[in-house]
Give the backbone structure.
Amino acid sequence: MNADAPQQWEYRVVQPPRETSQKEARDPSSVLNEAADEGWELDETIDYVGGGTKFLVFRRPADGDDGGSDETTTDFETDDE
């Protein structure tokens, strides 16, 4: 990559794991650790208007090939089964 070129990122959006009632989020540590193992970092959260996290937004440097790969479609396990 050219030193003057801005960093290119790829993004992954994941719903945080929920308790059985679907009203409370569970501890997202396992999702965060799995994402980190794959090179993703937490960029931001998208919250519901009344509070609570709706989505976790991850990013990692793009590999610079065609701008997209099958790898970005991999879901992180959320133990929702």
Summary: Helices lie at 29-37. The longest strand covers residues 53-61. The radius of gyration is 15 Å. Confidence is low (pLDDT under 50) at residues 66-74.
